[in-house]
Amino acid sequence: MNKDRVEGKVKDVAGRVQRQAGEWADDPEQQVKGAAKQAEGKVQNTWGKAKDATNKTAKEEASKPPRNTAEESEDAGEERRRA
Predict the structure, then answer these.
(1) CA-to-CA distance for 61 and 58, rounded, in angstroms?
(2) How high is the pLDDT of residue 59?
(3) CA 11, CA 39: separation in Å to the nearest integer?
(4) Does pLDDT of 63 surpass 90?
(5) What is the spatial distance between Cα 26 and Cα 20, in angstroms, rounded to a whole number?
């Protein structure tokens, strides 16, 4: 979990609290501010998830053994000769 996911979740929860308090106090301005903060938090959390997924994929690719292109070239040439 990266920094964006944590901060995004905090903003999401804080926005929910602010929006709910605005509803209880019948304060439309606080409701709107809370909803905006909540949306900002959701976007930041999603961005963090995308970054995590990208990092995970990059680490998986880096851990794979390197491809031997010389063998692949020989195999391709052999297949062409067979055809």
Answers:
(1) 5
(2) 85
(3) 8
(4) no
(5) 10
